[in-house]
Amino acid sequence: MPILQELVATGGVDNLRFLYERLIAYFPQLSEKEIGEIKNGKNKAWRSAIQKAGKTLDEQNLIERERGNWTITERGKTEVEKETSGFTLTISQAKSFSHTNIQLMLAEIGESLGFYAETEFEFYDVIWRETPKSQRLSHIFEVQSKGNIDSAFAKLKRAYQAQRTKPFLVITSERDLNRARKSLGREFQDIETVVTILTFAQIKQVHQNIKNIAEIIKEFLLK
């Protein structure tokens, strides 16, 4: 199902080499070491598992495979609709969130996790720090609803190289993922393994859920 969902998100077709990394998000049990190996192309077991799953989907007429490109069939689209009905935000819903909405959500998420959060800090959209007096930026977020993705990556790179800040790019929808990943792999390979790319819908989902458990989370994080 994750493979089918990813193919739907990219308009129905994607290349296998991109799917290897895109599918990581569906498996939270993966360790940081395993994720690093997958992103570096060193985890042969992961690649084998994805290829095996693709073969099964092809045999069930849910996808078609040709020269590394996987295309979802009409039957596959039907399966996704049945599985995800009423669960995920649609792309049109995601686009209804403004740049400012997402910035405020990210700030509230950070505060719920015990960070000091601020929007429009210097030339960054959102930053998190351990405390208001901390000099180091712990997390930075660039929210990309339109404009130049390379410019956003340049800001993230600058922060990472200066303080090993955790960089995040937040994009409108999963349809933009390929464009972002191609730009990252082409011009910004030195930060490719450290940048996390999220969508507006994912931020909205986290924001909705974390508000209900914010106080409990803070208790866990108390030192």
Question: What does this 3D model show about the protein?
Answer:
With 223 residues, the protein is of the alpha/beta class. The protein has two domains: 2-87, Winged helix-like DNA-binding domain superfamily/Winged helix DNA-binding domain (Arc Repressor Mutant, subunit A, Orthogonal Bundle); 95-221, Trna Endonuclease, Chain: A, domain 1, CATH 3.40.1350. It contains ten helices and eight strands. The chain has helices at 2-9, 16-22, 32-39, 44-59, 74-84, 91-95, 99-112, 149-163, 177-187, 200-221; strands spanning 13-15, 63-66, 69-72, 116-121, 124-129, 139-144, 166-171, 196-199. It has a five-stranded mixed beta sheet with strand order 4-5-6-7-8, sandwiched between helices. Strands 1-3-2 form a three-stranded antiparallel beta sheet. Helix 9 (177-187) links the parallel strand 7 (166-171) and strand 8. Helix 7 (99-112) runs parallel beside helix 10 (200-221). The longest helix is centred in the C-terminal third of the chain and has 22 residues, at 200-221. It is globular and about 60 Å long. It starts with a helix and ends with a helix. 27% of the residues are buried.
